[in-house]
Amino acid sequence: MRPLEQTQREFFAALQMPLRGRSRNSTDLAPSVEGHSPEFLAKAESLMKAGSNLLPAEQLELYHRQYWFRLLDSIAEDFPTLRKIAGEGTFWALMEAYVCACPSASFTLRHLGRRLADFTAEWEEIDATRRRWFAALARLEYAHMEIFEAAEWEAVPPEQLASVELGLQPHVVLLELPVPADLCMDWDKFMPEAEALTHLAVWRNESGNSAQCRIDPIEFVLLSRLRQGSSLAALFAEPTAREPSPEEVAGWFANWQNRRWIALAPTAETENFPVVSQRSGGDIDWSRVDKMGSQARAMED
Amino acid sequence: MSASRFTGGVELATGIGLRSPHYRHILSEKPTVDWFEIISENYMVEGGRPLEVLDMILEQYRVVQHGVGLYPGNCDGIDRDHLKRLKRLVKRTKTPWISDHLCWGSIDGSMSHDLLPIPFTFEAARKTAANLRMVQDFLEVPLAMENVSSYGEFNDSEMTEWEFLAEVCELADVGILLDVNNIYVSSINNVFEPLDYVNFVPPERVAQIHIAGHSRYERFIVDTHDHPVVDPVWKLYERAIERCGPVATLLEWDGRIPSFDEVWTEARKSETWRESALAKKGTDAAA
Ligand SMILES: [Fe+2]
Questions:
Q1: Backbone phi, then psi, for B78, in 5-degree steps?
Q2: CA separation for the pair B216, B206 (Å, rounded)
Q3: What is the mean pLDDT of chain A?
Q4: Where would you tag: which of A17, A219, A300, B76 has the fewest CB atoms within 10 A of its CB?
């Protein structure tokens, strides 16, 4: 008899093998007539018990399918614009390669795409231009996931701005991208424009929806300082690449305050019980709350 | 009420799984439902919509936490950070007990996000029970283990699934969440008599029962939770109630989710079966 650890290692390794043949039919992966690999069949024979109405290979394959179905469904849901821009064939080839290379490392499927941008930036199956654009877009779409579940801190009242340690609201994600990937949101297909370093903020707005906007490179630097925690005076202590005008700074501050971006880091006690702003249940899109479940996915056969 | 040691002394009747297509209806119509079961992992976040809707539900309803990511059968132990997040949610929901699955699911930090079957060996029973004892001590709320549906069995198994379930829960001294649909699904896929399973379960440990629908294929069943409960599953449910008493009962519906009313009507069918089972139990006791 194998030790438990060996059984689990062998079983998990089989789950991570690529889907073959008919099992791909219930996915959007490119079809293939290739059957199971000899390693998969051998693993099934040694692990699973014969004698039920399912062969050992069929038993292992049912788990193998569910593993892949669940991950592919989840990640496609999280990167709709990348899917549209990359096109079905490229998108699914990328997802298959990504899931093979970067298995989920979090308890929640919401984090499955965490390494997608880095992986895409190195994926050799597409040209360098696409790599830059697709990786930037993956980073942007993942930011929308991050802000969906990030904490909300108390906004700093204006009269306390000069007297307390300021922080950046956790549900504000700052991005410095090599291309203006935010433009992709309006495209129907890939049509790259001039490449330029682009600074964006993605955040959860007052009604709980995700929002994004471009920000000035200096604004990006100041907000990054705020993220580290800073007094108002210290925010401007270090020089920036360009000296912003007082009007610019005043405009930025007004925006940050309107959007409740300037926030107070919580004390240990409140951190244990995060604040959640209450809104009426009316017309809110709750669809992304259910990411995890105990059910299996239906399949073709 | 039996099993009070495993339910924190709280008695609940019929509930349904809280699912996002029903939020709007629940928040605006405030239907009468005994309790909702939530999937813990969907709310183990720092903020945003998940906690917002949860707080609104908690203002009006009793919520019981059900997890899919504890993986007590993992050979490499339990993730401490996961437990900390779970305990933080327990404080928020004040769940009377907490359940998860008797399964494993990850290795070296790589996650399957599935409820993988454990080989029914004495080694696995000991390791799983040790993990569960640690979890139980840490969470400080009664813990119940759910039997999973499975699509195969291991060559290495040394006992039946029902013996394994009883062995682990007794060694760890935890409760049982008996999913009678899962018993039925596994009985078709792995060819055994489902009543043997129900009849073997230690009734005093059963804290909760799950009922659900599934998808039937030619030679196997997949546990999709996207259909009404089938008759053979209701019969197993009836027998389970007859043995365990009026245990908290929850309907899971996760795929192709119909209207709230349809799900609630399906869940309430359990009340008829429960009454007939308790009547039988009464007759047997009198005889
Ligand atoms: Fe269940």
A1: -100, 140
A2: 27
A3: 93
A4: A300
CATH 3.40.50.300 is held by the domain B14-286: no
The chain-wide mean pLDDT, for chain B, equals 96
Asked whether the beta carbons of residue A54 and residue B254 sit closer than 8 angstroms, the reply is no
A120/A122 Cα distance (integer angstroms):
5
Q: Which residue ranges make up each domain of chain B?
A: 14-286
Locate B138 and state its tokens: 């840490």
Closest CA to B100 of B130, B61, B64, B68: B68
The helix (H) or strand (E) run that includes residue B88 is helix B80-93
**pLDDT at position B32:** 96
Domain covering A79-299, topology: Outer Surface Protein A; domain 3 (3.90.930)
Q: Whose CA is closest to B281, among B248, B239, B236, B249? A: B239
Residues of A in contact with B127 (CB under 8 A): 4
d(CA A275, CA B16): 27
Interface of B with A in 33-92 (CB under 8 A): 39, 41-42, 44-53, 55-56, 66, 68-69, 74-76, 79, 82, 85, 88, 91-92
Percent of chain B scoring above 70 in pLDDT: 99
Q: In this predicted structure, what is the pLDDT of residue B1? A: 42
Both tokens of A112, joined, read 């499955």
Q: Is the pLDDT of residue B195 over 80?
A: yes
Partner A contacted by B160 (CB < 8 A): no
